[in-house]
## 1
Amino acid sequence: MNANKPIKRNKALQAISREHHDGLLLCWKIKSGVEKEVDLFRIKKYVDWFYQNHLLPHFTAEEILIFPILGSQHQLIKKAIADHKNLEKLFTTKTNLTQVLNSIVNDLAQHIRFEERQLFNEIQQVATQTQLQEIERLHTQKAIDDYQDKFWEDKIS
Protein backbone atom coordinates (compact mmCIF):
# COMPACT_ATOMS: atom_id res chain seq x y z
CA MET A 1 0.00 0.00 0.00
CA ASN A 2 1.27 3.46 -0.90
CA ALA A 3 1.99 5.35 2.34
CA ASN A 4 0.97 8.67 0.73
CA LYS A 5 -2.35 7.41 -0.59
CA PRO A 6 -5.27 8.25 1.72
CA ILE A 7 -7.11 5.28 3.17
CA LYS A 8 -10.67 4.96 1.92
CA ARG A 9 -12.58 4.49 5.16
CA ASN A 10 -16.03 2.90 5.13
CA LYS A 11 -18.73 5.42 6.07
CA ALA A 12 -19.64 3.40 9.16
CA LEU A 13 -16.10 3.81 10.54
CA GLN A 14 -15.56 7.45 9.59
CA ALA A 15 -16.78 8.91 12.90
CA ILE A 16 -14.40 6.71 14.89
CA SER A 17 -11.58 7.61 12.49
CA ARG A 18 -12.29 11.30 13.12
CA GLU A 19 -11.91 10.56 16.84
CA HIS A 20 -8.48 9.15 16.01
CA HIS A 21 -7.64 12.51 14.50
CA ASP A 22 -8.67 14.12 17.81
CA GLY A 23 -6.27 11.76 19.60
CA LEU A 24 -3.42 12.80 17.30
CA LEU A 25 -4.35 16.42 17.98
CA LEU A 26 -4.07 15.67 21.72
CA CYS A 27 -0.52 14.45 21.10
CA TRP A 28 0.28 17.69 19.28
CA LYS A 29 -1.22 19.76 22.12
CA ILE A 30 0.89 17.93 24.72
CA LYS A 31 4.06 18.40 22.66
CA SER A 32 3.24 22.05 22.07
CA GLY A 33 2.64 22.65 25.77
CA VAL A 34 5.89 20.93 26.74
CA GLU A 35 7.85 22.92 24.13
CA LYS A 36 6.35 26.15 25.49
CA GLU A 37 7.32 25.06 29.02
CA VAL A 38 3.71 25.13 30.23
CA ASP A 39 3.31 23.82 33.78
CA LEU A 40 3.05 20.02 33.44
CA PHE A 41 0.18 19.85 35.94
CA ARG A 42 -1.78 22.22 33.71
CA ILE A 43 -1.17 19.95 30.71
CA LYS A 44 -2.01 16.85 32.75
CA LYS A 45 -5.30 18.41 33.84
CA TYR A 46 -6.31 18.71 30.17
CA VAL A 47 -5.00 15.22 29.41
CA ASP A 48 -7.15 13.83 32.26
CA TRP A 49 -10.20 15.71 30.94
CA PHE A 50 -9.59 14.42 27.40
CA TYR A 51 -9.17 10.87 28.69
CA GLN A 52 -12.47 10.93 30.60
CA ASN A 53 -14.52 12.76 27.98
CA HIS A 54 -13.09 11.42 24.73
CA LEU A 55 -10.73 8.50 25.03
CA LEU A 56 -12.62 6.24 27.46
CA PRO A 57 -15.88 6.50 25.46
CA HIS A 58 -13.88 5.91 22.27
CA PHE A 59 -12.21 2.77 23.66
CA THR A 60 -15.60 1.49 24.86
CA ALA A 61 -17.17 2.04 21.44
CA GLU A 62 -14.33 0.20 19.71
CA GLU A 63 -14.38 -2.70 22.15
CA ILE A 64 -18.17 -3.13 22.03
CA LEU A 65 -19.01 -2.25 18.44
CA ILE A 66 -15.95 -2.91 16.31
CA PHE A 67 -13.56 -5.43 17.84
CA PRO A 68 -16.12 -8.27 18.04
CA ILE A 69 -16.18 -8.33 14.22
CA LEU A 70 -12.76 -10.00 14.24
CA GLY A 71 -13.18 -11.75 17.60
CA SER A 72 -11.18 -11.62 20.81
CA GLN A 73 -8.63 -14.23 19.66
CA HIS A 74 -7.56 -12.34 16.53
CA GLN A 75 -3.98 -11.07 16.81
CA LEU A 76 -4.91 -7.50 15.78
CA ILE A 77 -7.64 -7.38 18.42
CA LYS A 78 -5.30 -8.75 21.09
CA LYS A 79 -2.82 -5.99 20.22
CA ALA A 80 -5.51 -3.29 20.25
CA ILE A 81 -6.81 -4.42 23.68
CA ALA A 82 -3.26 -4.55 25.07
CA ASP A 83 -2.66 -1.04 23.70
CA HIS A 84 -5.86 0.21 25.35
CA LYS A 85 -4.79 -1.25 28.70
CA ASN A 86 -1.32 0.30 28.38
CA LEU A 87 -2.80 3.69 27.49
CA GLU A 88 -5.31 3.51 30.35
CA LYS A 89 -2.40 2.88 32.72
CA LEU A 90 -0.45 5.84 31.30
CA PHE A 91 -3.42 8.22 31.42
CA THR A 92 -4.14 7.37 35.06
CA THR A 93 -0.54 7.74 36.23
CA LYS A 94 -0.06 10.84 38.38
CA THR A 95 3.73 10.75 38.90
CA ASN A 96 6.76 11.27 36.64
CA LEU A 97 4.72 13.64 34.48
CA THR A 98 7.47 14.37 31.95
CA GLN A 99 7.96 10.68 31.24
CA VAL A 100 4.22 9.91 31.30
CA LEU A 101 3.31 12.73 28.92
CA ASN A 102 6.05 11.71 26.50
CA SER A 103 4.87 8.10 26.67
CA ILE A 104 1.27 9.15 26.04
CA VAL A 105 2.34 11.11 22.96
CA ASN A 106 4.37 8.22 21.55
CA ASP A 107 2.12 5.32 22.52
CA LEU A 108 -1.17 6.98 21.58
CA ALA A 109 0.13 8.08 18.17
CA GLN A 110 1.49 4.59 17.45
CA HIS A 111 -1.78 2.99 18.57
CA ILE A 112 -3.89 5.28 16.38
CA ARG A 113 -1.71 4.62 13.36
CA PHE A 114 -1.93 0.86 14.00
CA GLU A 115 -5.71 0.99 14.16
CA GLU A 116 -6.03 3.19 11.08
CA ARG A 117 -3.47 1.42 8.89
CA GLN A 118 -3.99 -2.19 9.93
CA LEU A 119 -6.91 -2.98 12.23
CA PHE A 120 -9.64 -0.91 10.58
CA ASN A 121 -8.56 -2.03 7.11
CA GLU A 122 -8.91 -5.66 8.21
CA ILE A 123 -12.29 -4.95 9.79
CA GLN A 124 -13.53 -3.27 6.60
CA GLN A 125 -12.57 -6.35 4.61
CA VAL A 126 -14.44 -8.86 6.78
CA ALA A 127 -17.39 -6.91 8.23
CA THR A 128 -20.81 -7.61 6.83
CA GLN A 129 -23.02 -4.78 5.64
CA THR A 130 -25.29 -5.46 8.64
CA GLN A 131 -22.36 -5.10 11.07
CA LEU A 132 -21.26 -1.85 9.46
CA GLN A 133 -24.80 -0.46 9.57
CA GLU A 134 -25.03 -1.38 13.25
CA ILE A 135 -21.79 0.49 14.01
CA GLU A 136 -23.06 3.54 12.17
CA ARG A 137 -26.43 3.37 13.95
CA LEU A 138 -25.01 2.91 17.46
CA HIS A 139 -21.94 5.15 17.38
CA THR A 140 -23.42 8.60 17.79
CA GLN A 141 -20.81 10.25 20.01
CA LYS A 142 -19.93 13.73 18.82
CA ALA A 143 -16.59 14.88 20.21
CA ILE A 144 -16.70 18.43 21.52
CA ASP A 145 -13.58 20.03 22.91
CA ASP A 146 -14.97 22.78 25.11
CA TYR A 147 -12.06 22.73 27.54
CA GLN A 148 -11.37 26.30 28.65
CA ASP A 149 -7.60 26.30 29.28
CA LYS A 150 -6.04 26.26 25.82
CA PHE A 151 -2.43 26.07 27.05
CA TRP A 152 -1.22 25.02 23.59
CA GLU A 153 -2.09 28.52 22.32
CA ASP A 154 0.14 30.24 24.93
CA LYS A 155 2.86 32.45 23.54
CA ILE A 156 6.45 31.51 24.30
CA SER A 157 7.96 34.06 26.68
Note: Residues 3 and 118 are 12 Å apart (CA to CA).
## 2
Amino acid sequence: MQETRETRTEKRAKTFGKPIIRISRERLVNLLLEEEKRGANFIQLFSRTTPAMRKTGNSFFGQVEKVAETNCQINWFYDNAVNNQREREKIFFEFTPQPRTWGNHIFNPFIGRNSKTIIEHTNKKEQYNQYVQMRTLSVQEVHYEWIENGQALTETETEQLKSFMPERKKSQTQNTEKEIRVNDYKVESIEMMSMNNVSYVIH
Protein backbone atom coordinates (compact mmCIF):
# COMPACT_ATOMS: atom_id res chain seq x y z
CA MET A 1 0.00 0.00 0.00
CA GLN A 2 1.35 3.41 -0.99
CA GLU A 3 2.04 5.78 1.90
CA THR A 4 0.02 8.97 2.09
CA ARG A 5 1.68 12.37 2.33
CA GLU A 6 0.43 12.66 5.91
CA THR A 7 2.10 9.37 6.86
CA ARG A 8 5.40 10.42 5.27
CA THR A 9 5.25 13.79 7.04
CA GLU A 10 4.66 12.21 10.45
CA LYS A 11 7.49 9.72 9.90
CA ARG A 12 9.81 12.61 9.13
CA ALA A 13 8.62 14.51 12.20
CA LYS A 14 9.57 11.57 14.42
CA THR A 15 13.18 11.74 13.23
CA PHE A 16 13.65 15.11 14.96
CA GLY A 17 13.04 13.69 18.42
CA LYS A 18 10.67 16.47 19.42
CA PRO A 19 7.09 16.26 20.72
CA ILE A 20 4.64 16.02 17.80
CA ILE A 21 1.30 17.83 17.76
CA ARG A 22 -1.21 17.47 14.92
CA ILE A 23 -3.08 20.70 14.24
CA SER A 24 -5.47 22.05 11.62
CA ARG A 25 -4.57 24.92 9.31
CA GLU A 26 -6.97 27.15 11.23
CA ARG A 27 -5.15 26.30 14.46
CA LEU A 28 -1.81 26.99 12.76
CA VAL A 29 -2.92 30.53 11.90
CA ASN A 30 -4.12 31.13 15.46
CA LEU A 31 -0.88 29.71 16.85
CA LEU A 32 1.19 32.09 14.70
CA LEU A 33 -0.99 35.05 15.64
CA GLU A 34 -0.60 34.26 19.33
CA GLU A 35 3.16 33.86 18.87
CA GLU A 36 3.34 37.53 17.85
CA LYS A 37 2.91 38.44 21.52
CA ARG A 38 6.40 37.02 22.12
CA GLY A 39 8.27 38.83 19.34
CA ALA A 40 10.60 37.45 16.69
CA ASN A 41 11.17 33.70 16.58
CA PHE A 42 12.91 31.09 14.45
CA ILE A 43 11.15 28.13 12.86
CA GLN A 44 11.93 25.16 10.64
CA LEU A 45 9.39 24.93 7.82
CA PHE A 46 8.43 22.02 5.59
CA SER A 47 6.39 23.09 2.58
CA ARG A 48 4.89 21.68 -0.60
CA THR A 49 4.29 24.22 -3.36
CA THR A 50 3.63 24.44 -7.09
CA PRO A 51 6.85 25.69 -8.72
CA ALA A 52 6.60 28.60 -11.13
CA MET A 53 7.41 27.45 -14.66
CA ARG A 54 6.71 28.12 -18.31
CA LYS A 55 3.85 26.12 -19.82
CA THR A 56 4.77 25.95 -23.51
CA GLY A 57 6.36 22.64 -24.46
CA ASN A 58 6.63 21.69 -20.79
CA SER A 59 5.62 18.10 -19.94
CA PHE A 60 6.20 18.85 -16.23
CA PHE A 61 3.58 21.60 -16.10
CA GLY A 62 0.88 20.76 -13.54
CA GLN A 63 2.53 17.40 -12.81
CA VAL A 64 5.13 18.17 -10.14
CA GLU A 65 5.43 19.82 -6.74
CA LYS A 66 8.35 21.43 -4.92
CA VAL A 67 9.11 20.01 -1.47
CA ALA A 68 11.38 22.16 0.69
CA GLU A 69 12.87 22.35 4.18
CA THR A 70 13.65 25.95 5.12
CA ASN A 71 14.92 27.81 8.18
CA CYS A 72 12.88 30.98 8.63
CA GLN A 73 12.17 33.84 10.99
CA ILE A 74 8.72 35.13 11.90
CA ASN A 75 7.44 38.27 13.66
CA TRP A 76 10.30 40.41 12.40
CA PHE A 77 10.48 43.90 10.94
CA TYR A 78 11.48 43.93 7.27
CA ASP A 79 12.66 47.54 7.20
CA ASN A 80 14.79 47.05 10.33
CA ALA A 81 16.42 43.94 8.85
CA VAL A 82 17.30 45.73 5.61
CA ASN A 83 18.59 48.81 7.41
CA ASN A 84 20.75 46.62 9.69
CA GLN A 85 22.18 44.89 6.62
CA ARG A 86 22.83 48.25 4.97
CA GLU A 87 24.69 49.39 8.07
CA ARG A 88 26.86 46.27 7.98
CA GLU A 89 27.65 47.03 4.34
CA LYS A 90 28.40 50.71 5.09
CA ILE A 91 25.36 51.97 3.17
CA PHE A 92 24.29 54.99 5.15
CA PHE A 93 20.89 55.96 3.85
CA GLU A 94 17.64 54.68 5.28
CA PHE A 95 15.54 52.04 3.57
CA THR A 96 11.79 52.57 3.18
CA PRO A 97 9.89 49.45 2.04
CA GLN A 98 7.49 49.63 -0.87
CA PRO A 99 3.77 49.03 -0.17
CA ARG A 100 2.53 45.50 -0.82
CA THR A 101 1.17 45.01 -4.33
CA TRP A 102 -1.32 42.36 -3.18
CA GLY A 103 -2.92 41.12 0.03
CA ASN A 104 -3.48 42.69 3.43
CA HIS A 105 -2.14 41.96 6.89
CA ILE A 106 -5.07 40.73 8.99
CA PHE A 107 -6.00 42.17 12.40
CA ASN A 108 -4.41 40.24 15.25
CA PRO A 109 -6.64 40.26 18.36
CA PHE A 110 -3.78 39.00 20.55
CA ILE A 111 -1.78 42.20 20.08
CA GLY A 112 -4.56 44.64 19.12
CA ARG A 113 -3.07 45.64 15.77
CA ASN A 114 -2.38 44.24 12.32
CA SER A 115 -0.36 41.06 12.16
CA LYS A 116 3.20 41.07 10.79
CA THR A 117 2.82 37.38 9.94
CA ILE A 118 -0.58 36.54 8.45
CA ILE A 119 -1.74 37.99 5.12
CA GLU A 120 -5.09 37.47 3.44
CA HIS A 121 -5.82 37.78 -0.26
CA THR A 122 -8.76 37.21 -2.59
CA ASN A 123 -7.67 36.65 -6.18
CA LYS A 124 -9.45 37.53 -9.42
CA LYS A 125 -11.32 34.21 -9.31
CA GLU A 126 -12.73 35.21 -5.90
CA GLN A 127 -10.62 32.55 -4.18
CA TYR A 128 -9.68 33.51 -0.62
CA ASN A 129 -6.34 32.40 0.82
CA GLN A 130 -4.18 33.16 3.82
CA TYR A 131 -0.39 33.38 3.72
CA VAL A 132 2.41 33.34 6.29
CA GLN A 133 5.05 36.01 5.73
CA MET A 134 8.52 34.84 6.72
CA ARG A 135 12.15 35.81 6.39
CA THR A 136 14.04 33.00 4.67
CA LEU A 137 17.37 32.45 6.41
CA SER A 138 18.55 29.27 4.71
CA VAL A 139 17.20 26.51 2.49
CA GLN A 140 18.21 23.14 3.91
CA GLU A 141 16.83 20.82 1.25
CA VAL A 142 14.74 21.02 -1.92
CA HIS A 143 13.48 18.31 -4.22
CA TYR A 144 10.62 17.82 -6.67
CA GLU A 145 7.97 15.08 -6.67
CA TRP A 146 5.45 13.76 -9.17
CA ILE A 147 1.95 14.63 -7.96
CA GLU A 148 0.51 11.35 -9.22
CA ASN A 149 2.62 8.98 -7.13
CA GLY A 150 4.79 11.06 -4.78
CA GLN A 151 8.00 9.78 -6.36
CA ALA A 152 10.99 12.14 -6.42
CA LEU A 153 12.21 13.31 -9.80
CA THR A 154 15.56 11.92 -10.90
CA GLU A 155 18.55 14.24 -11.23
CA THR A 156 18.07 14.26 -15.00
CA GLU A 157 14.36 15.06 -14.70
CA THR A 158 15.11 17.81 -12.18
CA GLU A 159 17.60 19.44 -14.55
CA GLN A 160 15.03 19.27 -17.36
CA LEU A 161 12.40 20.79 -15.07
CA LYS A 162 14.66 23.68 -14.05
CA SER A 163 15.12 24.66 -17.70
CA PHE A 164 11.44 25.73 -17.66
CA MET A 165 11.70 27.69 -14.41
CA PRO A 166 12.39 31.44 -14.38
CA GLU A 167 15.55 32.68 -12.71
CA ARG A 168 14.87 34.21 -9.32
CA LYS A 169 15.37 37.98 -9.35
CA LYS A 170 17.14 39.75 -6.52
CA SER A 171 15.37 42.66 -4.83
CA GLN A 172 15.91 45.90 -6.71
CA THR A 173 15.07 48.16 -3.75
CA GLN A 174 17.30 46.93 -0.91
CA ASN A 175 20.57 47.96 -2.62
CA THR A 176 22.55 45.44 -0.56
CA GLU A 177 24.99 42.70 -1.52
CA LYS A 178 23.29 40.25 0.82
CA GLU A 179 19.56 40.16 0.16
CA ILE A 180 17.01 40.01 2.96
CA ARG A 181 14.70 37.36 1.52
CA VAL A 182 10.98 37.53 2.19
CA ASN A 183 8.60 34.72 1.25
CA ASP A 184 4.84 34.43 1.61
CA TYR A 185 3.78 30.79 2.10
CA LYS A 186 0.20 29.85 1.41
CA VAL A 187 -1.13 28.21 4.57
CA GLU A 188 -2.26 25.18 2.54
CA SER A 189 1.33 24.62 1.39
CA ILE A 190 2.71 24.11 4.92
CA GLU A 191 2.98 20.43 5.89
CA MET A 192 5.04 20.70 9.07
CA MET A 193 6.56 23.40 11.23
CA SER A 194 9.03 23.11 14.08
CA MET A 195 8.78 25.93 16.63
CA ASN A 196 9.64 26.23 20.33
CA ASN A 197 11.00 22.65 20.33
CA VAL A 198 7.68 21.20 19.07
CA SER A 199 6.98 19.67 15.65
CA TYR A 200 3.54 20.69 14.39
CA VAL A 201 2.13 18.41 11.71
CA ILE A 202 -0.54 20.21 9.69
CA HIS A 203 -3.58 18.32 8.43
Note: The longest strand covers residues 128-146.
## 3
Amino acid sequence: MAAGNVWPSSETASEYAIKAAFLFNIIKYAEWAPGSPLSDPSKPIVVAIVGDDPFGSALDDAVRDRTVRGRRVLVVHAANLKSVKQAHVAFISSSEASRAGDAISALNSRSTLTVGDTEAAAQALVMVNFVVVQGRVRFDVNQAQARRNGIELSSQLLKLARYVHEAGGLP
Protein backbone atom coordinates (compact mmCIF):
# COMPACT_ATOMS: atom_id res chain seq x y z
CA MET A 1 0.00 0.00 0.00
CA ALA A 2 1.38 3.42 -0.97
CA ALA A 3 2.20 5.90 1.76
CA GLY A 4 -0.57 8.37 2.38
CA ASN A 5 -3.36 6.10 1.16
CA VAL A 6 -5.95 4.72 3.51
CA TRP A 7 -8.08 1.91 2.13
CA PRO A 8 -11.59 2.01 3.54
CA SER A 9 -12.94 -0.96 5.44
CA SER A 10 -15.93 -2.71 3.90
CA GLU A 11 -18.19 -0.83 6.34
CA THR A 12 -16.91 2.59 5.24
CA ALA A 13 -16.50 1.63 1.58
CA SER A 14 -20.17 2.15 0.81
CA GLU A 15 -20.20 5.40 2.81
CA TYR A 16 -17.31 6.76 0.74
CA ALA A 17 -18.82 5.49 -2.52
CA ILE A 18 -21.90 7.56 -1.67
CA LYS A 19 -19.76 10.57 -0.72
CA ALA A 20 -17.88 10.21 -4.03
CA ALA A 21 -21.15 10.26 -5.98
CA PHE A 22 -22.32 13.28 -3.98
CA LEU A 23 -19.02 15.05 -4.59
CA PHE A 24 -19.32 14.55 -8.36
CA ASN A 25 -22.88 15.91 -8.29
CA ILE A 26 -21.88 18.90 -6.15
CA ILE A 27 -19.33 19.80 -8.83
CA LYS A 28 -22.12 19.72 -11.43
CA TYR A 29 -24.05 22.33 -9.43
CA ALA A 30 -21.14 24.70 -8.71
CA GLU A 31 -20.18 27.71 -10.82
CA TRP A 32 -16.92 29.60 -10.44
CA ALA A 33 -17.00 33.36 -11.00
CA PRO A 34 -15.92 34.54 -14.44
CA GLY A 35 -12.35 35.72 -14.37
CA SER A 36 -11.34 33.52 -11.44
CA PRO A 37 -8.12 31.58 -12.02
CA LEU A 38 -10.19 28.40 -12.01
CA SER A 39 -12.85 29.44 -14.52
CA ASP A 40 -10.98 28.48 -17.73
CA PRO A 41 -13.45 26.17 -19.53
CA SER A 42 -10.70 24.56 -21.64
CA LYS A 43 -9.04 22.91 -18.64
CA PRO A 44 -10.22 19.88 -16.63
CA ILE A 45 -11.92 20.32 -13.30
CA VAL A 46 -9.34 19.26 -10.73
CA VAL A 47 -10.44 17.57 -7.51
CA ALA A 48 -7.68 17.27 -4.91
CA ILE A 49 -7.86 14.92 -1.96
CA VAL A 50 -5.76 16.61 0.72
CA GLY A 51 -4.22 14.13 3.14
CA ASP A 52 -5.04 10.44 3.45
CA ASP A 53 -7.48 9.15 0.84
CA PRO A 54 -10.56 7.60 2.46
CA PHE A 55 -12.25 6.99 -0.91
CA GLY A 56 -10.08 4.13 -2.16
CA SER A 57 -11.05 3.87 -5.83
CA ALA A 58 -14.61 5.19 -5.29
CA LEU A 59 -13.95 8.79 -6.34
CA ASP A 60 -11.88 7.78 -9.36
CA ASP A 61 -14.69 5.39 -10.34
CA ALA A 62 -17.36 8.08 -9.83
CA VAL A 63 -15.69 10.53 -12.26
CA ARG A 64 -14.21 8.07 -14.78
CA ASP A 65 -15.26 8.95 -18.35
CA ARG A 66 -17.62 11.67 -17.10
CA THR A 67 -17.62 15.37 -17.79
CA VAL A 68 -19.14 18.47 -16.24
CA ARG A 69 -20.20 21.12 -18.76
CA GLY A 70 -17.87 19.55 -21.32
CA ARG A 71 -14.88 19.43 -18.98
CA ARG A 72 -13.38 16.18 -17.77
CA VAL A 73 -12.87 15.71 -14.04
CA LEU A 74 -9.38 14.85 -12.82
CA VAL A 75 -8.69 13.49 -9.31
CA VAL A 76 -5.29 14.22 -7.78
CA HIS A 77 -3.90 13.18 -4.42
CA ALA A 78 -2.07 15.75 -2.33
CA ALA A 79 -0.09 14.65 0.70
CA ASN A 80 -0.55 18.13 2.18
CA LEU A 81 -1.75 21.62 1.37
CA LYS A 82 1.57 22.60 -0.25
CA SER A 83 0.97 19.89 -2.87
CA VAL A 84 -2.33 21.45 -3.99
CA LYS A 85 -1.71 23.75 -6.93
CA GLN A 86 -4.75 24.74 -8.98
CA ALA A 87 -7.56 22.59 -7.62
CA HIS A 88 -11.16 23.58 -8.27
CA VAL A 89 -12.37 21.31 -5.47
CA ALA A 90 -10.48 20.08 -2.42
CA PHE A 91 -11.65 17.32 -0.11
CA ILE A 92 -10.00 17.84 3.28
CA SER A 93 -9.35 14.39 4.72
CA SER A 94 -9.79 13.64 8.42
CA SER A 95 -6.00 13.15 8.58
CA GLU A 96 -5.76 16.92 8.11
CA ALA A 97 -8.25 17.74 10.90
CA SER A 98 -5.63 19.42 13.09
CA ARG A 99 -4.68 21.70 10.19
CA ALA A 100 -8.17 22.13 8.69
CA GLY A 101 -8.41 25.84 9.47
CA ASP A 102 -5.13 26.70 7.76
CA ALA A 103 -5.89 24.45 4.79
CA ILE A 104 -9.35 25.84 4.24
CA SER A 105 -8.23 29.48 4.59
CA ALA A 106 -5.51 28.97 1.99
CA LEU A 107 -7.83 27.12 -0.40
CA ASN A 108 -10.59 29.71 -0.02
CA SER A 109 -8.16 32.42 -1.07
CA ARG A 110 -7.74 30.46 -4.34
CA SER A 111 -11.53 30.15 -4.95
CA THR A 112 -11.37 26.41 -4.35
CA LEU A 113 -14.61 24.66 -3.37
CA THR A 114 -13.74 23.10 -0.02
CA VAL A 115 -15.39 19.86 1.07
CA GLY A 116 -14.91 17.84 4.23
CA ASP A 117 -16.54 15.28 6.47
CA THR A 118 -15.36 16.17 9.95
CA GLU A 119 -16.40 18.53 12.72
CA ALA A 120 -13.01 20.25 12.39
CA ALA A 121 -13.71 20.96 8.70
CA ALA A 122 -17.16 22.32 9.52
CA GLN A 123 -15.76 24.58 12.25
CA ALA A 124 -13.08 25.83 9.85
CA LEU A 125 -15.82 26.98 7.43
CA VAL A 126 -15.56 24.32 4.76
CA MET A 127 -18.17 25.09 2.04
CA VAL A 128 -19.71 21.61 1.98
CA ASN A 129 -19.47 19.14 4.85
CA PHE A 130 -20.68 15.55 4.68
CA VAL A 131 -22.37 14.10 7.76
CA VAL A 132 -23.88 10.71 8.50
CA VAL A 133 -27.31 10.98 10.11
CA GLN A 134 -29.20 7.82 11.07
CA GLY A 135 -27.00 5.78 8.77
CA ARG A 136 -27.51 8.07 5.75
CA VAL A 137 -24.95 10.37 4.15
CA ARG A 138 -26.18 13.96 4.09
CA PHE A 139 -24.42 17.28 3.60
CA ASP A 140 -24.46 20.80 4.98
CA VAL A 141 -23.66 23.85 2.85
CA ASN A 142 -22.04 27.10 3.90
CA GLN A 143 -23.45 29.26 1.10
CA ALA A 144 -22.03 32.47 2.55
CA GLN A 145 -18.49 31.06 2.50
CA ALA A 146 -18.89 29.81 -1.07
CA ARG A 147 -20.18 33.20 -2.28
CA ARG A 148 -17.37 35.07 -0.50
CA ASN A 149 -14.95 33.00 -2.56
CA GLY A 150 -16.61 33.40 -5.94
CA ILE A 151 -18.46 30.10 -6.05
CA GLU A 152 -22.20 29.94 -6.63
CA LEU A 153 -24.00 26.76 -5.63
CA SER A 154 -27.22 26.01 -7.47
CA SER A 155 -30.56 26.26 -5.70
CA GLN A 156 -31.20 22.68 -6.88
CA LEU A 157 -28.22 21.54 -4.80
CA LEU A 158 -29.25 23.66 -1.82
CA LYS A 159 -32.69 21.99 -1.77
CA LEU A 160 -30.98 18.65 -1.10
CA ALA A 161 -28.78 19.91 1.74
CA ARG A 162 -29.57 19.10 5.34
CA TYR A 163 -28.67 22.67 6.35
CA VAL A 164 -27.86 25.74 4.27
CA HIS A 165 -26.06 28.47 6.13
CA GLU A 166 -26.31 31.92 4.65
CA ALA A 167 -24.02 33.46 7.29
CA GLY A 168 -21.48 32.08 9.73
CA GLY A 169 -20.25 28.54 10.13
CA LEU A 170 -21.88 25.16 10.01
CA PRO A 171 -23.42 23.59 13.14
Note: The radius of gyration is 15 Å.
